[in-house]
Specification:
Elements: H1 6-23, H2 27-36, H3 39-50, E1 57-61, H4 65-81, E2 86-91, H5 97-102, E3 107-110, H6 116-126, E4 130-134, H7 140-148, E5 152-158, H8 171-180, E6 182-187, H9 190-199, E7 206-208, H10 213-223, E8 238-245, H11 247-263, E9 267-273, H12 278-290, E10 297-298, E11 308-310, H13 317-320, E12 326-329, H14 342-346, E13 351-353, H15 361-368, E14 372-374, H16 396-406, H17 408-424, H18 428-442
Helix pairs in contact: 1-2, 3-6, 4-10, 4-18, 6-7, 7-8, 11-12, 11-16, 16-17
């Protein structure tokens, strides 16, 4: 049976040894470490009180919020179809804590560290019939040791970016034992299937099942009530909603907002930071002042919506996109990677993002459908170029923004094309659920 390498285990031990020191300057890492401190005790306690070893158990892992939304829509279908199963759900990022509490699972918690002792303890407690990773956060020690016990190992909604570090040495060599244990993999596209095979998943075990995030995004967009209080933030003005932003995105956003507002006083900007920590919000206030703008209104302050609003809580972005006439998705001006473009697309609004978008397959396809725009000096043909000659100044984002405001029919048409793209991808949740059902049928009921 395949095992992880000595090099991988040594690097994991080193990483865990260094983590407390690194956490002193990284609040998110510190939060994750603190939450993992007693995770094995919590899993053992749940097992003693609730684990019925006569019932099959599905263990699904999704790293953060984006992957969690993909997992959630699949787990909803599986819970309805198989009430006899027990379901365990784990995540890696602290940002997924709130989402994990609503996942239809019997137990939800942080993923233990990928060390042999921790992995064995978690497997002893859960005794899964199948272990399923969502998207690509596959941990090789967990995968190899689960397979050794007879659990079926799989991946759903698998996406491998063309620029993924996992595809390069030494990561590929270190992670390969885990990928070799995958008995069924559902890839988002043919290209992702080929990259999965290059990582080590046997080609015969890979099928294209699509991305369940399409189902999730459309389901949420259709569930937004017309009287939702968040929608009022977009009324009475021409609103751009900027979601999952980092400081590198916020600087050009605020500069563009100042330029656009000079021509269109009715314009409104709603910024939803990826991590709305007090430190980040304070930096945003400083950037706004440097751009000659007023201090942003916090969403939690309430009252009549200001022209510049910063959202200081999580969990509302997918609804807020429906409040805007234009969406901006963060991550494209720095190194964080572009965040999901499907939520705004499902709300039928045109999508803007920065030049570092290549890791997102969906962004490329929206561009091809003339439903999105990269913020750069190369403007797409479907925008009204005449309006770009005035008002935008030196800011490409301001020029694009003004063009859409001056040509609302063009913007609305782009939004319709975005929605059509999302609608065309629906059905992946059912296909991925079917893959999981086949995995559960092939694993041991009690893989201890």
């Amino acid at each position: 049976m395949t095992s992880t390498s000595l090099a991988y285990r040594a690097l994991l031990r080193l990483g865990w040894a260094l983590a407390p020191t690194l956490a002193r300057s990284r609040p998110k890492l510190a939060q994750g470490l603190a939450a993992r401190d007693q995770v094995l005790d919590r899993l053992r306690a749940w097992s003693r009180a609730h684990r019925d070893v006569s019932r099959p158990l599905l263990w699904m892992h999704a790293s953060s919020v984006g992957e969690g939304l993909q997992a959630e829509i699949v787990l909803k279908a599986l819970r309805l179809a198989h009430p006899e199963w027990q379901i365990a759900y784990t995540h890696f990022s602290p940002s997924a804590e709130a989402l994990a509490q609503r996942i239809p699972a019997d137990v939800a918690d942080y993923l233990p560290g990928d060390r042999r002792a921790d992995v064995d303890a978690a497997l002893d407690a859960l005794a899964p019939s199948a272990l399923v990773f969502c998207k690509l956060d596959l941990w090789p020690e967990l995968a190899t040791r689960a397979a050794r016990r007879g659990a079926a190992v799989g991946i759903i909604a698998a996406t491998v970016s063309p620029v993924s570090a996992r595809s390069r040495w030494p990561s590929r060599a270190l992670l390969r034992p885990g990928y070799r244990m995958v008995s069924r993999a559902g890839a988002v596209s043919d290209q992702d299937a080929a990259r999965l095979a290059a990582l080590g998943v046997p080609s015969a075990n890979i099928e294209v099942t699509g991305d369940p995030r399409f189902d999730s995004a459309l389901e949420h967009a259709r569930s937004i009530r017309p009287d939702d209080s968040l929608l009022r933030l977009g009324k009475g003005g021409s609103t751009l909603v900027a979601g999952s932003t980092w400081s590198e995105d916020e600087q050009p956003l605020l500069t563009a907002f100042a330029a656009v507002r000079a021509a269109r006083p009715d314009v409104r900007l709603i910024i939803v930071p990826h991590e709305p920590t007090p430190e980040h919000l304070a930096r945003l206030d400083g950037m706004a002042a440097a751009a000659g703008l007023e201090t942003p209104q916090r969403l939690s302050d309430g009252g009549e919506p200001a022209r510049l609003i910063v959202v200081d809580r999580v969990g509302v972005l997918a609804t807020l996109y429906a409040a805007g006439q234009i969406a901006f998705v963060g991550g494209g001006f720095g190194k964080a990677g572009l965040h999901s473009v499907l939520e705004p697309a499902a709300c039928a609004v045109p999508v803007l993002f920065g030049p570092a978008w290549q890791s997102s397959r969906e962004a490329g396809l929206l561009l091809a459908r003339r439903a999105a725009v990269v913020v750069s000096v190369d403007f797409p043909d479907w925008l009204d170029l005449d309006s770009l000659t005035t008002g935008g100044g030196a800011s490409p984002l301001a020029a694009i923004w003004l063009a859409m405001l001056r040509n609302p029919a063009h913007a609305a048409a782009a939004g319709r094309r975005a929605l059509e793209y999302v609608e065309a991808g629906v059905g992946a949740a059912a296909r991925n659920a079917g893959l999981v059902e086949r995995l559960m049928a092939s694993g041991r009921v009690n893989a201890r």
